[in-house]
Records
---
Amino acid sequence: MTKPLRPEFWTLPLDRLTPPEWEALCDGCGKCCLNKLEDEETGEVVFTSVACRLLDGETCRCAQYDIRLQFVPECIVLKPETMRDIAYFMPASCAYRLRYEGKPLHDWHPLISGDPETVHDAGISVRGWTTPEFEVDEDDWEDYVIEEEL
Ligand code: SF4
Ligand code: SF4
């Protein structure tokens, strides 16, 4: 039997979350599914509006989440023990990064608002403005760099 999610589980340290709680922490923004470019000299990472081929640009969800690694082996699987290496290039608004840094979730997070649409209504998600990677040559990703912090 699946255990119910504990009240306000998102306030607990990441390594104390159950697997369903870990999954439920995601705000559904889709930002981590944008392709990134890393400056070889400075190591600076910038996001582009070119999205992974499995991202649904309207729902902001992965079209094949459970079996995504079969199609996109480079997809990064977030885990409490790997956050130390991953957090720095996750979007600043990402719930996992916020909690890793000991910060609270934002009011628009569906766990706080109780409504999965608030992440979209607040303009946080990637809904409606991504370009699928199969439509853009990788050499042209620089033209799609997002200047503002995500
Ligand atoms: S950026 Fe973080 S909160 Fe947003 S979809 Fe990715 S894992 Fe979930
Ligand atoms: S495989 Fe799915 S979860 Fe991974 S980056 Fe692509 S759309 Fe996102």
Note: Residues 108 and 114 are 9 Å apart (CA to CA).
---
Amino acid sequence: MSNTCNQLSVRASSLGELFDCPARWEAKHIRRLRLPRSAAAQLGTAVHAGTALFDQSRLDGNPLSADECAGAVVDALQKPSEDVDWEDTSAAEVERMALPLHGLYCREIAPRQDYVAVEAACESLTFTDIGLTLTGTVDRVRATQDGLGIADIKTGKTAVAADGTVKTQGHAAQLAVYEILAGHAIGRPIDAPAQIIGLQVAKTDKGRRAGVGTIQTARDVLLDDGESPGLLRHAANMLHRGDFYGNPRSQLCNPKYCPAYAGCRWRK
Ligand code: SF4
């Protein structure tokens, strides 16, 4: 987070954590406490890198094959830009799961999409009335018959159910932030429902899955509605007041995920 003349700048991707446990957000983004990245998070980074290269090459009119983009997956695992705690696995083992998942996306998801932007970057979107500036990137913006829509890629061991369903519950507010950012970044309205592209991580071909879930985002809860403040104003108020309470019921209230865990007074 940065602060310019009472205008606080926050990465949009961190807002979900701010609402989940403000004290954990403060530890990471203000006190800069760090934990090594998990192997699962690094797998996600690697698959994002490979698939982005694949999709961007098509947008550029110079399409690369999935194999030609696989180097980006390998690099992210073999030469990570941050410390990674591989725990009971290794970069090589994670690579054996990440590469087929990258291939699955390239074969089964990408050909069905009509992207207009890949990793669309928004330098800053300022809400002067609440003193908040958002920055960040949006995985994909796609063209549909209902207008432009965003797509967010999520990897994980429960990303796609056995029946192909992608879990969308709980993501409406975060995706609404991405919609606002994407609209600002490309200068066009985002009107179509958002997609979550789920990529199920598994060691076997049988367990590996890819699917797409559609979600109506919650833009209405982000902004003030004339009677009650929206989520962004709540976030800005918390940030300006420096008022960060803890949520020990968070699913990430765990020494593996929270750098403030050891001394946290909210757990008592
Ligand atoms: S230990 Fe739990 S309650 Fe405390 S900051 Fe971390 S996640 Fe939040």
Note: The two ends are 28 Å apart (CA to CA).
